[in-house]
């Protein structure tokens, strides 16, 4: 069972939550009362953006077309990245918590407060 450490933009711990692999990150955050901004929960507004860090081996990230389009529209990725079906697994990349299934390893989840 992966351990998720939610932190704010300053690196301060917001919550530490055990989750099941495959659960949607936004659902985990909401159930644990993590102060993660979200509006629609359907992957159309982009307010639930997060960054993920982990110590495990890098795996290709395969965001859905919808997620890529929302991130592009929000200015969080460039058109070349929006056109790619997989991305490198980097901690500087944005993801939408409403589209992101929890992985098998422990994560640090950066929740921007903007």
TrEMBL record:
Gene3D superfamilies xref list: 3.10.20.30
InterPro entries attached to this UniProt entry: 2Fe-2S_ferredoxin-like_sf (IPR036010), 2Fe-2S_ferredoxin-type (IPR001041), 2Fe2S_fd_BS (IPR006058), Beta-grasp_dom_sf (IPR012675)
Pfam families: Fer2 (PF00111)
Coiled-coil regions listed: none
Signal peptide: none
Superkingdom to which the source organism belongs: Bacteria
Location of the 2Fe-2S ferredoxin-type domain: 2-114
MF-aspect GO terms: 2 iron, 2 sulfur cluster binding
UniProt protein name: Ferredoxin 2Fe-4S
Taxonomic lineage of the native organism: Bacteria, Pseudomonadati, Pseudomonadota, Betaproteobacteria, Neisseriales
């Amino acid at each position: 069972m992966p351990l998720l450490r939610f932190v704010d933009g300053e690196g301060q711990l917001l919550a530490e939550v055990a989750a099941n692999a495959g659960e949607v990150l936004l659902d985990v955050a909401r159930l644990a009362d993590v102060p993660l901004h979200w509006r629609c929960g359907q992957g159309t507004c982009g307010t639930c953006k997060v960054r993920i860090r982990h110590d495990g081996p890098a795996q290709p990230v395969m965001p859905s077309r919808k997620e890529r389009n929302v991130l592009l529209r929000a200015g969080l990725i460039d058109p070349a990245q929006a056109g790619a079906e997989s991305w490198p697994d980097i901690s500087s990349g944005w993801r939408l918590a409403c589209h992101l299934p929890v992985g098998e390893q422990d994560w640090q989840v950066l929740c921007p407060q903007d």
